Amino acid sequence: MNWFPLIKEYYLMGLYTDTQLDIFVNASWITADQRSEMIEAKSETSTSSQTSSQA
User: Fold this and answer.
1) Range 33-54 burial, b when 16+ CB lie within 10 A, else e
2) Is residue 30 packed enough to be buried (19+ CB in 10 Å), middle (13-18) or exposed (0-12)?
3) How far is CA 38 from CA 6, 13, 20, 53, 54, in A?
4) Which residues of the chain form beta strands (DSSP E)?
5) Interacting residues of 42 by C-beta distance below 8 A, sequence separation 6+
6) What's the pLDDT score for residue 21?
7) What separation in angstroms does the CA of 30 have from each of 7, 48, 53?
8) How far apart are CA 37 and CA 30, in angstroms?
9) From CA 6, how far away is CA 26, in angstroms rounded?
10) pLDDT at 19
11) Tens of pLDDT along the chain (55 residues)?
């Protein structure tokens, strides 16, 4: 099963932490590259939402 889309959705919603992503990498549910992609996407989302709320 491809867990990446579900894990990414839940991570971006704040239901999973960075530590939990490490567990998923160790369990081979996602790759280290996918983990990095999710962390980057979340930081971009946080940055854009902070910018729009300050406008």
Assistant:
1) ebbeebeeebeeeeeeeeeeee
2) buried
3) 11, 11, 12, 22, 24
4) none
5) 11, 12
6) 98
7) 9, 26, 32
8) 11
9) 17
10) 97
11) 899 999 999 999 999 999 999 999 999 999 999 999 999 999 988 777 666 666 5
Q: How many residues does the chain have?
A: 55
User: CA distances (Å), 50 to each of 11, 24, 45, 53, in order?
Assistant: 18, 29, 9, 5
Both tokens assigned to 55: 């406008």
The residue to which tokens 């983990």 are assigned: 35
